[in-house]
Design goal:
The protein is 26% helix and 15% strand. It has four helices and four strands; from the N terminus they run αβαβββαα. It has a four-stranded antiparallel β-sheet, with helices on both faces. β2 and β3 form a beta hairpin. The two termini are 19 Å apart.
Length: 125
Amino acid sequence: MTTNRSEYYFSGMLSVEFQYPESFIKAVNDGVDVYPWWFIYKNQEFADLCYSTINKKMPKGVLVVPFAKNDDSDGIACFDGRSVNIGNPKIFTYKGESSFDQGNIRSRFRVESFDYWLSVFRRST
């Protein structure tokens, strides 16, 4: 079954124009295995909870769009929702931090693109 782009959005919660990378959409539609990660859009309630919980902790002007959870580390991979690189945002990993200051949050967007993230975590079949 092919998933439409609109199905990745968090119950209409996104207040900005955000474009998922084409490679993300393809990976999801192709059922790519990224174990120990899993794509959270499959559980809408959990995805909505991640979106609202993590974004409440972000400094003003920062928006993240969660897309995958790692069950081994409890990390949640998030796209930079306000990226100037439309359709190819950097990736931030949230690991339960209680708060962030504006100075250190941008340094946390360590992964340059979904393509790179996928090249690290994609499992061979």
